[in-house]
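Hi Prof. W.,

I finally got the Thymidylate kinase prediction working! I wasn't sure whether to trim anything, so I left the full sequence exactly as given:
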Amino acid sequence: MTGRFITLEGGEGVGKSTQSRLLVDALNARGIDCIATREPGGTPGAEAIRSLLLDGDGFAPRAEALLFAAARSDHVERLIRPALERGSWVVCDRFLDSSRAYQGGAGAIGDDGIMQLHALGSNGLLPDRTLLFTLPPAEAKARLDARDRGVSDAIGSRGDAYHDDVARSFARLAEREPERFVTIAAGGSPQEVHTEVLRAIEPLIETLA
Ligand SMILES: Nc1ncnc2c1ncn2[C@@H]1O[C@H](COP(=O)(O)OP(=O)(O)O)[C@@H](O)[C@H]1O
Ligand SMILES: Cc1cn([C@H]2C[C@H](O)[C@@H](COP(=O)(O)OP(=O)(O)O)O2)c(=O)[nH]c1=O
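And this is what came out:
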């Protein structure tokens, strides 16, 4: 029996990490073995690549896309696939669709390029369900200001036009793959958003019965 693979996507500050924690706790409480992980990161090698990508001065667009794909490859091979194969569920804060939105749609690479890197790097692994959180930019910014006190990383600090493009790219992906994506308005309280998350995941839980 393989586990289920759930990813959380959206712009910075929409509440992905908060919802990831709530979801993993809820699944564990139902007796479902489940791990939380994140991208870029999740393994020692991928966390090292995360620091290169986010804490430095940045890379040329193709190198940036390759580094995200390389981090993902290590993460899939060493953590995600083994967990799924032993029957554990995996909840991942960002995954492939972040590369499609940030490097593919808003960046210079395009969707085909990102999907080619993913085919090579991670054997094309796709999530069973992807939750896309949406929030008006001003609300996301207020949450980020409170969390990070004005400090942002190499990608978060790109301008509003870039982040608007990212949001449009995410929306297009969700439109194109309605069977995998569920879009969740993230403006409510953490508990209200969590209720919507559980509603979106319920069909996967029912397949276990
Ligand atoms: N539903 C919510 N309403 C208000 N604040 C929230 C909500 N969800 C998360 N936050 C807060 O907003 C900030 C960003 O949330 P976080 O989960 O880190 O977002 P992300 O992982 O998408 O960047 C954190 O300080 C978090 O505590
Ligand atoms: C996984 C991934 C992340 N990113 C970016 C999005 C974020 O700006 C950054 C990861 O930071 P993260 O810590 O996830 O940001 P936040 O919690 O604020 O949402 O890397 C990409 O550009 N491509 C990718 O494939």
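The chain has a mean pLDDT of 96. Does that look reasonable to you?

Thanks,
D.
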